Structures are given as structure tokens and as C-alpha cells.
Amino acid sequence: MSERHPILITGAAGEIGGVSRTMVDMLLEQGHPVRAFVRQDDERAHSLRRAGAEVFVGDLLTIADVTAALKGVRRIYFSMGLSPYYTDAVSLMAAAARAKGDIEVFVNISEYEQSFMTFDDMTAPEDERRARLGGIVANWSPQQRAHWIAERVLEWSGVPTVNIQAAFFVENPIMTWLALGSLADGELRLPFGDHRFAPIAGYDVAELCAKILADPAPHISKSYALTGPELKDGHGFAEDFAAVLGSPVTYVPEDIETWNETYVDTHMAAYPHIAEHLKTLNRIIGRGGYGGITDELETLLGRPPKTVRWALENHPRIRKLAAA
């Protein structure tokens, strides 16, 4: 790739180890120029500059900023934190990319749920939707709906797109923040019952996205549903936490709504959009509506996905807890 065409990475000011920031480091190491889109010119922006990235400071909800950020760009990775304005931001980026006319690829970070959120399922009678999602909820969260709309917008835009439909991240706050308090007592309290699913490591998603951005042609117009390597229940997660922390951990399944009230409502009261998404995820996972496993990541990367244990070992918050 010519140095005249930097790769645009949004969401780049996330924490070290986050998907966007990991991608920035990977692409720079491979010799690709990177333009990191950030909201504030703070220490995280300075860290990106020190790593070798060009930093663009702007607002994803301002079309003038988005258009300016695309100057000279041919390849885009789009990510944004959970937000009630998520669809707006994707639509603005798609509109700017379409107007530019020479975009080679728009890599869209999406969700595993999108691989089975079909139009027919979403428009089925309420009792059928409820049964499909495990019996507690009849509708997806506002964030899940936003990702579904975003995929449709990108399809309609005509911009060459790749959808990365990533499963529940090991690094999700449910696993690596909200659930940590009880670990001091040797307990992992989660609202998943005995249901199994396959969380994915953020590192794996970053590596695949970086690979697509470096050579997009084989992937255009495709959607990849990605999971971790193994279906696990709460007992399996407890074993992983125990191995990383070096002390016994027992899984204690909790009632879904009790857990949501105790952990999500308490810690996310100021962020109702995020709270509703996390609570809906718990309701779906805790009633078996989120199972399944794919081999797409192994096929694309030529290696097995990283394990839950590996992701926990490499998570800053978990490392800090293990060292305490």
C-alpha cells in the first residue's frame, strides 16, 4: 500500500489491549500508515502518536469531521463505543465514504448475533421471538438493533464492506469488571445458569481485521461470524479464573434479574443505553439463546482462536487482580 493512503481506524483511543488500539499497533508494525480517529487530544492520543500513528481529533457525529478524516484514505475500520447514536455514526461514515467514491474497504465491527438476526426472525410473532431468545425477552437490545441497522445501511450504501460479527468478548465488562468483586471470596457470580457459549478474545478480532485491511480484495461483501474455540459454562470460566489468579474459584449461578439489579443497575445507572444492552445480553445468554460455535476465525487466520484463559491472562484488570 502506498504511504499516500493511510488506513483510518476509529475508536483508536480505547484502552491498551482494546481491538482498535491493538490493530493500530499491528498495522504500524507491518509498515502500514495509520490515521487514528480520536475524540479528545489527551494522553491516549499522545500514546498513539508515540507509537507512530497520525492522530485525527474529531467527532464521529459531525459529518464535516468524518469527511476531513477520510482525506487520502482508501481503507476504513469503523468502531464506536456503545451509544444510542451508533447508527447515526455508521450512517455518516458510510455517507462520507460513498461521497468520496474510492474507498477500497469498510471493515465494520459488528456482533455475532447479527449472523442469526434475520429479517424473518425479527418480524416473527412475539411468542416466536421470545422463544428464539430464551423466553425472557422478545426483542434485542437497542445496541443489537443498531448493529443490525448499520449492516443494512452499509449494504444499501454500495461501499465495499466486510462485517466482522464477533461473539461476546472475553473482555466484556460482565466478565472482567462487574463480576470481579466476588472473586476475593473465591466465587465467580454470573447469571448464565448452566448454558454454554464461546467468548472471543479481542486480540483475535484485531488480528483478523488488520489482515483484511492489509489485503481486502478476498473479503469484500462477506460477513464473518466469529467465536472463541470452545463452548464453556460458568464452571469452565471459574476454572480459567482460578488458573489465572492462582487460587480456587467456584462458579455461583445467580438469578438473572437479581444480578442485573445488583451489578448492572448499580454500576451503569449513568449509562442507560449500555445498561440495557448488558442486561439483555444476560437475559439471552442466561436462557440459552446465544449458543453456537464457528471455525471461521481459524480458517481465516490459520490458527486456533485464543482461549478464554489466554485472554484473561493478558487483560490488564485481571493481571492487576492476580498480582494483588
TrEMBL record:
Residues 17-216 form the NAD(P)-binding domain. Pfam families: NAD_binding_10 (PF13460). Transmembrane segments: none annotated. This is Hydroxylase. It comes from Streptomyces lincolnensis. The lineage of its organism: Bacteria, Bacillati, Actinomycetota, Actinomycetes, Kitasatosporales.
